[in-house]
Amino acid sequence: MSVWILATLALMPPLVLSVALTWRGRPGQRLAAYQLATTIGVTILTLLTFATDQASVIDLALTAVLLALPGTLLISVFMERWI
């Protein structure tokens, strides 16, 4: 196993915990957990790029980064208006 795969596996438990907190938790915790899950997910995709030597995976990570901010803003507006 390469170091990149081990680093990816080490990031899986925090990703699972942040996704679980996104589903269950107070609204403020959900927003913070969503941001953490996005950050960890992008980091995992970037590590997989180096682990598999396929440059196309980094495009998915960059797309996730670009969509994270508008997604967070939409969730914030929803929480402010309806919760």
Automatic annotation (TrEMBL):
Keywords: Cell membrane, Membrane, Transmembrane, Transmembrane helix. Its main location: membrane. The chain crosses the membrane at residues 34-51, 58-79. It is found in: Cell membrane. It comes from the Bacteria. It holds the Pfam family MrpF_PhaF. It is a multi-pass membrane protein. This is Monovalent cation/H+ antiporter complex subunit F. It comes from Methylobacterium komagatae. The lineage of its organism: Bacteria, Pseudomonadati, Pseudomonadota, Alphaproteobacteria, Hyphomicrobiales.
